Model the fold of this input.
Amino acid sequence: MLDTTRDPAQFRKAIREWLSIACPEEMQGRESHDGFAESDICWGGKRFEFSSPAQKTWMDNAASQGMTVPTWPAEYGGAGLSREQQKIWIEELSAVGAKLPLQSFGIWMLGPALLAFGTEEQKKRFLPEIARGEIRWCQGYSEPGAGSDLANVQTKAEDMGDHWLINGQKIWTSYADQADWIFALVRTDRDAPKHKGISFMLIDMTTPGVTTKPIRLISGKSPFCETFFDNVKVPKEHGPGINAIVGEQNRGWDVAKHLLTHEREMIGSGSRGPLGGRSVGQILSSDSTLNDNPVLRAEAMKYEIDSMATGLTLDRYKDMAGAGVPIGNASSMLKYQGTELNKRGYELLMSLTGSDAAEWDSPHGELASEWLRTKANSIEGGTSEVMLDIIAKRVLELPYK
Amino acid sequence: MESLILNEDETMLRDAARGFLDASAPVTAFRKVRDDGTGFDRGMWREMAQMGWAGVLVPEANGGADMGHRAAGILAEEMGQTLVASPFISSAVIAATTLRAAASDRLAGIADGSTIYALAIDEGAKFNPKAVMMEATQSGNAFKLNGKKGFVAEGRAADRVLVLARTSGSAGDADGLTLFDLNTDRAGLTRDAIAAVDGRDYARMAFDNVDATGDDVVGEVGGGLAAIQTGLNAGQAAIAAELGGVSAGAFAMTASYLKERKQFDKLIGTFQSLQHRAAHLWAEIEVTASAIANAGRMLDADPANAAVAVSLAKARATDTAKLAVSEGVQMHGGIGMTDEFDMGFYMKRARVGAEWLGDYGYHAAIVAAARGF
Done:
């Protein structure tokens, strides 16, 4: 049993010992791999194919101790860790080169939404199965006509007495074709002002009328789908007392806004470390042609400085959050700086690796594909321009009119 | 290491400093210093010394407050916000840190503000300690110093000066430099005032057969770079913090102007082109603030290994201050170009601060070397 004692040194020791038992050897030492392999991520869910039996063992062992969702309360499948303990956990994980045992939109997005806005019945029904990696969730926010203007969602939910009748289309739903459930923004009141008629609804993807279609991206990959709802009947309750709507009906925008703030912090911080673990300095000094190129050198120097300072800013904001200082709309700054920096870093990597990186399968891994993928960083979760709008209006309080 | 946010004592220090400076040293006070050509206000410096600022890095046994480098950074940042001119960095940070390492008995004078120190390294237009050529010819325990130093901050007012001179080797060698601690009224030492754009106290110093002895040497003969290293790092972190304050001060002026100035019958702050530029600038200031806080923390926790953190802070602070003052003038429009308005003071201080103790490229090279290239 994992000892989650309060003393940091004891906790670190306990984590270290537990890791040596719970994390299969095969799942350690993976951070040192060149680049970043999407196949290394354990997403869980009914349709997920584990890359190895060890991957499943690691997930199950962690879940049994609440360590797939370490900061959630124990009664919902977590380990109730403090922020400080969470930091130690991540440090110890990376010390042995292990990936997180489970990652998912359920953990990142729906869990925090339910913890903040859900009823006890909703939490008990949905959180433990996320923690155990049994159900994989996807996020249904954007629509063809609702991108930056997210509150313009038109997917309609009609009140049919005992159920909602859903019609409409979502786009950019990450991994919808592999998800079991979707949390979606739907319009439950067409007459209200646009922010006031939206509800945050939980829908089983196996319900008749739900279909998905992957979108092929410039990177050659298809992480996103279109999701269609054609006369989909969603029961008002997913079991006794378990409302299909999270938070109040027609107040789904509050839930969505809360989650977006959360998402921005996350995108800004990046889950895989800068540049997928690649070192600009190492690449630059490996080739004298590069090293003698003053423009590339200057760009690389400036990138390193900005990258380190941005990393320290994430640390500083974590320290703030840990001390109970509300971050609020400043998360837009973290998202803006983190994503713009990441795009710059990948542009630099592409220049440094030259024609090698122009090949889909290069000595630097799937660098070209990753580089192309970064172009979405400053679009998804709110564009850089929307982030600057939020900073200007909400943080700096510049006038509307 | 301590968290990157302010602890309770530091928050109190910042609030107290801000309260004092807003009341006693607003930008109008600097304007008077500039107009009078005094370089800084000695009365003000005495008041700061009484509050313990001059002794911020001096041990309590020598009459100091011994609050550490993060605290010194907080004070420097607050002084940057209202453009306070003072010998704080030269004397209370660089000299105090350097002489503390050498266990000098002159620390008490620094702490009570009675002794003002300057630092004389530069001989060319760019900061480069290794390039020092000024000769210190040794015979037995005696030295004769001959040569010139330029752009010595607080060089006019200084009672004493830390001088880096060459006892062996040639320009470019890291070895062979020796650090001297000299009184400025020593025979053969002459000073010429420099009128600099930021309106502060600078001097050129000429050394014509200035006599020194082994007692004047700080650290080892030939080991001058080592003797000054931590003091320099402390000074670089402090000027970075001051530039952080300069950025914040210029930004605050600009943000308020966007909320009051009307053109085309609208507040100019409603224009998205200006909103985005202001938001970007604020985001840059936030990132730089983290690097500044980290440099102070590293100097307190592990001074021997703080050089990269300090260079990171100085590089970022230089870059951000340049952006803050350029955007400040541009967003103010014509009034930003007038001497009557304060924005120009911020711009001129940011320029000198960018050069002093190493420019962006100097510090970027140190970071790059640490990052493997």
About this structure: The longest strand of chain B covers residues 142-153. Chain B has a mean pLDDT of 97. The domain at 225-370 of chain B is CATH 1.20.140.10 (Butyryl-CoA Dehydrogenase, subunit A; domain 3). The beta strands of chain B are 117-120, 135-139, 142-153, 160-166, 177-183, 189-194, 202-213, 217-218, 262-263, 266-267.
